[in-house]
Structure formats: C-alpha cells, structure tokens
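subagent[fold] <- orchestrator: predict structure for attached chain, return tokens only, no commentary.
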Amino acid sequence: MHHGIGFAQLVATGLLWAVVGAFFSHAARRGLRLVPFGLVSSISSTLMAACLCDWAAIRAGGLPALSAFVPIIVLGGFLNTAGTQLIMAAMRRGHQAGSWTVAQSAMVVPFLAGVTFWHERPSVLNMLGVLLIVSSIALFGRRAAMREHRSESHAWFGFALLAFVMIGMSQTLLTVPSHWPGWSDAGRLRVPLVTSSAALALGVGCAFRREWPGRREIVAGLGCSLVGVTGSVLAFAGMDNLATAGLVSLVYPLAVGTCIVGFGLNTRFRMREPLGRAGAVALLCGVAGILLLGIK
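subagent[fold] -> orchestrator:
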C-alpha cells in the first residue's frame, strides 16, 4: 500500500517539475530577464525550504562534519545556478523539449561518479541506461546540427550540453556527503543551502548587470519556486514510502522521467513545438535510460 502511494507521489513530483520547466520556457520565450527571474525564485525557495528544515535536529548536532558539508553544498548550488541559467539560454535559442531532456539527463553524471570514485557496482541494465542517455544526447545533437527547423538556432544544443555538465557536476557534489560514514542530512539543510547559494550568485549577477526584478519576473519567480518546493516535498514523501519496500533507487529516475515526458507533451500539444521522429526517439531514449539507472 505504501509503495503504491509512493509511486503516485513521485509521478505527481515529476509533473510538478515539468511545470517548473514550463516556467523556465516561459521566461526564456517571453523575454523575461533571466537573472532577476532566477533571483526571485531562489530567494522565495530558500524561505520556503528553511521552513521545512528540522532545526531541532540541527541544534542537537544532527548534521556532523558541518565545516566540510557547507562548502561542498554551496559550490554545488553555484554550479546548479549556472546550469539553470544555461537551460533557459538554450530554450531562448531553440528547441524546448530537447533543451530540457538533455539537461535533465545530467543525473547520469553522479551515477558514473559513484561507479568511478566510490566503486559502486552497476548492473547490465544500468549500463544500458547510460548508453541510451548518450544516444539521446547524440540524436538531439544531430537534430541541432541539421537545423531541421529554420526557426531554431543550432546554438541551443551547445547551451543545453553546458547545462548538462554544470548540473551533473552539481548533483555529484550534492551526493558526496551521503558517502561519508555515519552521515545523514537529519536537519534537511541541503535544499536551503543550495537555494541560498543560488540567491547569492544571482544577486551578485543582478548587481553587476544592474538588472532587477520587475513585476513579470516577480510573479513568474514566485510561481516557479512554489511549484518546485511543493515537488520536492512530494519527492521526499514518496522516498519515505518507497523506502519501506527497498525501492529508494527508483525515486529520482521515476520523478525525472515523468518530468521529461510531461514537459515534452506540453511543448508538443500546447506550444505546438515540432519534435519529429528523431526528436521523439531521442526523448524516449533519454527517459528509458534514466529509468534504467534506478533499477538495481
């Protein structure tokens, strides 16, 4: 019973994250100022995430190795900020579904880091998942190079690939403390640290560029953060329910796979973005690869 509820919560998480992607796409296509939009979203996300922290556990010493933990997570937050800005830069230049799929496929990077640095043993299905993700990225790259649709600049793929690298490095750093013996994020401090470091980086960016949020950036940023934090709450609830059945490894692959499919359907049927046969195959390869990474 619990794992059935957990699966439903993770599908809902993925759909909410697809809405986050829709906010990114809206900001990119409608000419919003991307750095101020990100600043509003990160500040409001920090305030909401801080309310979800277990401050009693933190005060009681529920977060060991704090001096090593904070710099790693903050650096991960900076890299994630760069990645999200690059996603929107890619969307501003070209294919929405391709930009989102390539960037979300970055979860293969911490998987490969675990195999390389922490000697985790992948299954045959895991390695097939890696190959499918690489194939997905290659197919989207081929589509961009051929410029199947003249309204797109081929430069979108370069920005999406950079987003893939930045987000992959960020996700890898965020998993590092989980490999420390006896360590756990009992106080749930990771999320507000990531979002507050994003707010710092984007605040500096706004000051440097002399750009500040207007009404459109404030409304979109608040909506994006509300949806994103709600999705994170559901993800943690789903994780707790699947833990009882030993299915924690499926949590992020299922949520991210649903997120890609949901965003792809939105761009195809609401935005009328052409996907084509090669694009559809690339998207499905990415989703299948991500799901296979979670099968132990």
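orchestrator: received. Logging for downstream: The first helix runs from residue 2 to 29. The radius of gyration is 19 Å.
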